Each structure stands twice: as structure tokens, then as C-alpha cells.
Amino acid sequence: MANETWNLETNSELTAEPGSPLSLVDPPLTAEERVADRPTDYGDTAVPSKPTWYKTAEGHDTGAGRVMPYEIQLFWHSNIGQIAEHAKMPPLPPLPDAGGSSLGSRGLDHIYIAGHRLTIVGEGDVIVPGGDTDAILTGYWDRTDPVRPQWVRVQPETEYTVTVAAYNHDDVYGPESDPLTLTTPAIGFDQQHNTLPPTAPDNLAFAAPLPVITTAAGGPLVLSWDRQRDATKYEVYNNATRETDVPMDPDRIGLDIGDVKLGEIDQPTGTNQTITFTTPAFTTPDTRLALKVRSVRTDTNGTAVSAFSTVLRSQIPPAVSAPGKAGTPTLTESPVVGGQVKLTLTPPPIGIVNGAPTFYAVYDGTRKVATVQAPLGDAPHVTLSYTAGQAYSFTVVAGNSLGVGPASAALTGSVPTPAAPSAPTGLALTGAVSTTSVPVKWTAVTMDPPVTKYSLYQGTTKKAEVAAPNISGTVSGYTPGQAYSITVTATNSVGEGPKSTALSGKTNAVPGAPTGVSVANVTATGMDVSWAAPTGVQPAVTSYKVYDGSTLKATSPAGTTSTGITGYAASSPYSVTVAAVNSVGEGAKSSPAVTGTTPAA
Q1: DSSP collapsed to 3 states, 241-310
Q2: CA distance 398 to 401
Q3: What is the pLDDT of residues 31-61, one digit of tens each?
Q4: What would the pLDDT profile of 479-525 be if each residue is shown by its tens digit?
Q5: Which residue in 84, 114, 156, 218 has the most C-beta neighbors within 10 A?
């Protein structure tokens, strides 16, 4: 047997699947079945995934550490979370119920990676072999001449754009990361500035007693630590998780999962060697405190941070008494849509008699349906999935380490059963009416089942349909000056709902003819003309034109109803008419014409 080569995958003598526990519930597969059960990409070369740069606490890419005149420090993630995607092993059989036994890990995040290539965009590249995900870049290979590449050193006061890509053992490269752009500082920066990160703060301590929460406003912490001469400001963090061994946050370099920034303080002027900082108010008793501070130095080269101070651990004191009666819960969104019942909670009054809550319990009748930790964040505080027609009766109790308060008043109701939509509201013009069309808008109808379309009617005639969630449309097909009466309906899977209140008016048209045209003060060379404005004009009159026959004699602005015309000879006949004008155009001339003859000289 020592001279034989065994294929553990296809060994038909095995009594259990390779790599799995003995005594499986299901009988082992045959060699042929195991081969047939392989994934389609079994044995293929795994292509590494796209690397990503580290991020700041605010979520911005920060792949660069210290950036000096002749070197750049870089950090990146590679293949994070890609183990299952790249696994080429056949699926392992399920375990029998063994009380939570586990088959263990599939491998490391750097599996399949042989190294990385850093590309200085437009310049060259450098190879970083192995599984390292950081590098100090001092130069790169310019491969313009592939036979004799040239080593180029990083230069001061130069902007570089860098990408990183992983490659596997077959020299197959994965996709490039997003570009990271940075600029090296001037020569002398490393002599003028401390090239190391700033010093971590020492002697972090409480500078005042911890607050006892007796009001809704809560109370702050007052912290102090030793001044660090190479810092320009300090950042203060807390971690309220209950674990003592908190893992690092893979997306925020230097921070742990659960770290919350309480604030920052600039380096104060003067010679005071103790820094004092007041945090925002804490409003929840028994809040775990794991406080830490780090120094920050910002200069012409950017920002560098120190390691954190020693963690200062404590806890906000317990409440002085059990909470009072919580407020009645309300629906954050009404009516309930899609069976999602969203609740807004209201905290109870807080004082010496009624302590501050650390949690809220929500009940439907006698059944607890949710627990919410204090303090309450943005609404909705609770979201529950209910079926159509299901009734509810929600109450809330507030609690802390000393007990729970009385239940709130109940919020009762039921999830709406399927029905056709109600009539839309808010129907109004959404733009200028034309001579042939009317643009309108309305308020969306929110319900369950949701609206799928809206229909626009002129009287009893459907003129247009609009797919939800659009809430505007245009009704067309009118003639100039035609009266309209538009309504809108909503439709869902149940059917079409009732019509909205009608929006009435008329389309635009040229003005009607002025009336009551007359002449006065007729002389051998001219006369005065007057008229009455037409009524019901839409849009409004902008001017009037006075004619003698087909000859334009005068133009008068809107708002006037008389003008003088001249240019006649003695004993000349005249035939005067007036027309109104608006933005659509010129209307008809008045009728009949006013006729006569100018007097003799």
C-alpha cells in the first residue's frame, strides 16, 4: 500500500464522504456520482476579485498612510468575503443533527492570490508578491521599453494615481481597484515635520462624576487627558457593545466594529497641559462605556492619526426608579401599505419618580412583538409584517434595571383588506393651458394593494392613462376656447376607484371681437375711436389694433379702450374696426364697421 497512489476523492472503499464526519445519515456517493456532482467550474483557475482601498471613519477611500517626498504607504483589502464564491470543492453533504457541530472554515480570504500589481496610471507598475495587502511605494518600473524597463523613483510635489489588482498562481489578474489619487509633499517636509504618527493621549480619565439620568435631556461625560504637543486636534470614541474583545472594522482603518465618534476638540492655545472635553448628553441608564481618544495631526501633507489611548471602561449609573407610562404608539405611515405596520414610539416623562428607560417592549394584545433599545432613534421604531385584514392592539411598556412602567394606551386597528383605490385629491393645473391640451397633476393614492395606473377623463370619456407612480398627465384633443371638465381615477389589482373632484375651465383661444365701437371728434384729418373690451378672454388681451378697412391705423396697449387715429384728407371716406390681440394671436375685427366721411376743409 505504501507504493500505491490513492485518490481520496474517488476511492470506492471509503465508508464516508472525504472531509466529512463518519456515520452519515445518507449513504456515501459512488465514485461516479461524486465526479458527476462536481460544479461545472471544478478545477478552473479562480480569478481574484477587485481589491478595495481602506476607508476613513467617514467612509472615504484612504488607501494612503504616510505620504512623504520619496515614498508612499498604501493599504488595501483583497478577496474579502470571496471564499464561498471562489470555492471549487464539491458541496459538502449536510451534517446530521449533532448539536451545532461545524465543518469549519473553507480557507483564508487570501486564497488563490499569489500577489498584487500596483499600477501608477500612465507611468508604470510594481509587483508585490505574496498575500501582503500593504506596501511602501518608493518607485515603479517604466515599461515603455518592455525589453529594458527603467526603475523610476517617486518624486516630490508630484500627483500620482494608483490602482491595485490581484493575480493568482497562473498569473491571471483580477479587475483593477478604483483609482486612488494623492500628491507627494515638497523636499524638506520630512525634516520640517515629524514623520511618525502623533503621540497617543495619556491618562484618559473622568473629570467629573458620571451623570445620573433624571431628565429626558440626560447628562454629558467630562473627560480629561494629557496634552500631546504634536497633535492639532483629538477625536473621542465610545463603544457601547457588551463584548470585551471587539473585532477590528475591516472598512474603517484603525477602528473597531461598534466604535462611535462622540466628537472632537481642537488643540487649545496656551500652555495648559490637560485637555478637557465634554461629550454629547447620554440619555440611557446602564449604557456601557468603552471610551478612547486619539491624537490627530493635520499639516500640508494631509492628516495622520495616532494609536488610541488606553480604553477607559465604565457604565452610566442605573436609573433611580422604574420608568413611567410610555406614550401611546402611533402609525408612522397611515394607511398601512403592503402589510408593513410601522410604529412610532413615544418615551415616558423622566424624573426622580420615573426613571429613564433602557428598553421598550411592544405588545399586540398579550403577545410581545418587538423590543427596542433606548434611546429611540428615527421613526419608524418598529416595523411588523401583518396580513390583510389582521387586527392589532398595540401597547408599549418602558423598562430599565429596576422594573417596567405601566402599559401605554392601546393603538387599535386592522390592516386594510384589498379594495379599489379612493378618489385622488389635489387635481390642479401643472402648467399653461394651450389651445388644444390641458396639463394636470394630482396627489398620489397610497394603499395596499398599490395603485398601478391613473386614468384621466373629460366628462365621461377616458382621454389618457398614466402608469403609477407618475402623478401628472396631459389631456389633449380640445379645440380653442373649448370648456373642459377633467377628473382622474386610480386603479389597482382590485379595480378602478371613483373619480376625483372635477377641474374645470376652458382652453386658450384668440380674443373675441370688441363691441360698441364708435368714433367722435371727427375732423378733416382724423378722429377718436372708442370700444368695449371683449369678455371671457383666455389668455388675457395684450393689445388692440384699430383698422380703417384693411389698413392698420393704430395699436393701443391692454387696458385702454380708446385711441386717436390720423392721416386722413378732407372729404375722405372711412370704415373703422377694432381687433383684440393676446398671446395666442389676433381675434376677429369688430362688426359692423363704423363708416362715414371726414368733413371738407
Answers
A1: CCCCCCCECCCCCCCECCEEEEEEEECCCCCCCEEEEECCCECCCCCEEEEEEEEEEEECCEEEEEEECC
A2: 11
A3: 777 777 777 766 666 788 888 887 655 566 6
A4: 999 999 999 999 999 999 999 999 999 999 999 999 999 999 999 99
A5: 218
- Nearest Cα residue to 442 out of 460, 418, 476, 468: 468
Q: What percent of the chain has pLDDT over 70?
A: 85
What residue type is assigned to position 543 of the chain? S
CB 501 within 8 A of CB 489: no
Cis peptide before 449 (omega within 30 of 0): yes
* φ/ψ bin of 453: left (φ > 0), alpha (ψ from -120 to 50), beta (otherwise): beta
Residue pair 177/155 in contact by the 8 Å Cβ criterion: no
Is pLDDT of 158 > 70? yes
SS3 161: strand
Position 220 confidence tier, pLDDT thresholds 50, 70, 90:
very high
Identify whether the C-beta of residue 589 lies closer than 8 Å to the C-beta of residue 514: no
pTM above 0.70, yes or no: no
At 173, give phi and psi (nearest 5°).
-90, 140
- Grid cell for residue 231: 497633535
Instruction: Write the secondary structure of 168-235 as one string of H (helix), E (strand) and C (coil).
Output: CCCCCECCCCCCEEEECCCCCHHHHCCCCCCCCCCCCEECCCCCCCCCCCCECCEEEEECCCCCCEEE
| C-alpha distance from residue 1 to each of 6, 17, 30 (Å) | 9, 21, 22
Q: What length is written for the chain?
A: 601
Residue listed under C-alpha cell 456515520 = 23
